[in-house]
Automatic annotation (TrEMBL):
Its EC number is 1.18.6.1. This is Nitrogenase protein alpha chain. Its cofactor is [8Fe-7S] cluster; [7Fe-Mo-9S-C-homocitryl] cluster. Belongs to the NifD/NifK/NifE/NifN family. This molybdenum-iron protein is part of the nitrogenase complex that catalyzes the key enzymatic reactions in nitrogen fixation. It comes from Pontiella sulfatireligans.
Length: 546
């Protein structure tokens, strides 16, 4: 879309949506629906409880802890303490991929397994700790894992089973297996964001810093907030290897426990998904002296920019030259791929309501295809995800957030080692390299676009009717409803069956997949069953009974 073409006024549809709500609810929802005006400081209400009765896209605390942060790690047994449904729901739903590891294809890869204590009614009444101990013992005897994580679901928190005490007991019994628990009951917090925080805390307490083996590489980094959906981390590992950069650990895509244990030996932390893993980055900086900055490897230009920032950080001419060689070799084919799809994609409109960084980062990919994002939002954002970290001092801690443990971190007397002096960091910042900073999604959106936090199905339907977008990006809960409205939907949680979409090769894959979706005419020929008006069509009729 050309720069001079203005977006339609979203305040019209915003008012129409809010008019259907009771006044009190409308006032609350209005604060989470913001028409972007980058000349102003605008507050986007977020990280608040979903209004009862509204069909939300959000997941629970347990899903954020087990499903997102720990789920992609191949050599930890993720044992769910709760009814079997909780474990089954979080099993292989995100298409996390992994290398087979040093032991080969039949070695320490437990991602394909579904581990659960399968609590029954009797366990709810009389307690489930005995059953949990038995399950941990069986998992250890059969698989001999390096670590076992125990994840609490809602019933566990209600009946009071102490997963931490059981974990400590079993860890002491085994001696060679790190067993630790997560109080990540689904009802904690307001969304899966609480689970991210809890997972970060427990990884920091029980895993990070356990192995002081020093890396052999010259440039050693951790990549945080990359979960290897559809093989994204494989592509990034390829690029880093070409540049001569050594990845000690990725949190948590294509990850292993040993990498987590050694992650404190890195020179630099790169943060992709800010919301899911920023706690670890900040705690590692405080305890070990590892600086961090935000990166984006979604899109060709974004990947090149992030690589150059790494070169700037190390201030090594050899590394900088090597990075430029890689960019020179890789970027032209990405530019050509974007040019090839322009005839189909240029001027098209996109909407995206996804978790993590995806509703933000993928706007850059769409822009490379000549597409405009007219509306976007997160499922589980906090205000800083929209407005930038500058607002952190003004965010009030509510009761839901106080339920989550805040670790008191201090510099490690033996392992604290600032990778850069204060003067060196200041000089780098003067040259444009921003540490511990994040501008937020609003900064990259066009004026007159619409931010909607924790969007509901009703709101999504009305926005589709108003904007008539060419593509809608969300998750599985929205996929089929949106497609029945004649709009193609791309899942950005699991990539459907596509990917990788990160890095240079990933960008080309994304261009191709989106162009195919926009080229097909089948979507416009669809008509949702509930829109049929013929007299012979089936209908559901009801009337109120006094």
């Amino acid at each position: 879309m050309s720069e001079d073409k203005k977006l339609p006024d979203p305040s019209i549809i915003k008012e129409e949506i809010l008019a259907k709500y009771p006044p009190k609810i409308a006032r609350k929802r209005a604060k989470s629906m913001v028409v972007v005006d980058k000349s102003m400081d605008q507050e986007v209400q977020s990280n608040v409880r979903t209004i009862p009765g509204i069909i939300t896209q959000r997941g629970c605390c347990y899903a954020g802890c087990k499903g997102v942060v720990l789920g992609p790690t191949r050599d930890i047994i993720n044992l769910v303490h709760g009814p079997i449904g909780c474990s089954f729901y979080a099993w292989l739903t995100r298409r996390n991929q992994t290398d087979p590891g040093e032991a080969g294809p039949d070695g320490e890869n437990f991602i394909n397994y579904c581990f659960s204590t399968d609590m029954q009614d009797s366990n709810i009444v009389f307690g489930g700790e005995k059953k949990l101990k038995q399950a941990i013992q069986e998992a250890y005897d059969i698989f001999k894992p390096k670590a076992i994580g125990v994840f609490s679901t809602c019933p566990v928190g209600l009946i009071g089973d102490d997963v931490h005490a059981v974990s400590r007991e079993m860890k002491e019994k085994f001696g060679d297996c790190n067993v630790f628990g997560f109080s990540c009951e689904g009802y904690k917090g307001v969304s899966q964001s609480a689970g991210h925080h809890i997972a970060n805390n427990q990884l920091f307490k029980h895993v990070i810093g356990r192995d002081n083996t020093q890396p052999e590489g010259k440039y050693n980094i951790n990549l945080l907030g990359e979960y290897n959906i559809g093989g994204d981390a494989f592509e990034l590992d390829r690029i880093f290897e070409l540049c001569g950069i050594n990845v000690i650990s990725t949190f948590s895509g294509n990850s292993n426990v040993t990498g987590f244990e050694r992650s404190h030996t890195a020179d630099l932390n790169l943060v992709m998904c800010h919301r899911s893993i920023n706690y670890v980055a900040e705690m590692m900086e405080t305890k070990y002296g590892i600086p961090w900055f935000k990166v984006n490897f979604i899109g060709g230009d974004a990947t090149a920019k992030s690589l150059r920032r790494i070169g700037e950080y190390y201030e090594d001419p050899e590394l900088i030259a090597r990075i430029e060689e890689v960019i020179t070799a890789e970027l032209p084919s990405v530019k050509q791929a974007a040019k090839d799809v322009l005839k189909t994609t240029d001027g098209k409109l996109a909407m995206m309501f996804v978790g993590g960084s995806r509703a933000h980062h993928y706007q850059e990919l769409f822009a490379e295809m000549g597409m405009t994002t007219v509306s976007a939002g997160y499922e589980f954002a906090h205000r800083d995800d929209y407005e930038g970290r500058k607002v952190l001092p003004t965010i009030k801690v509510d009761a839901d957030s106080r339920n989550i443990e805040e670790l008191k971190i201090e510099a490690d007397p033996e392992l604290y080692n600032p990778r850069k002096t204060k003067v060196e960091l200041e000089d780098l910042e003067k040259n444009g390299l921003e540490f511990s900073e994040y501008k937020g999604m609003k900064n990259d959106m066009a004026d007159q676009s619409l931010i909607v936090d924790d969007i509901s199905h009703w709101e999504a339907d009305k926005l589709i009717e108003y904007y008539k977008p060419d593509i809608f990006c969300a998750g599985i809960k929205e996929k089929y409803v949106v497609q029945k409205m004649g709009i193609p939907l791309k899942q950005l949680h699991s990539y459907d069956y596509g990917g990788p979409y990160a890095g240079f090769e990933g960008a080309k894959n994304f261009y191709t997949d989106i162009e195919r979706m926009l080229s097909t005419s089948i979507w416009k020929k669809l008509k949702a069953p509930w829109l049929e008006t013929g007299a012979s069509d089936p209908c559901i009729c009801a009337e109120y009974v006094a």
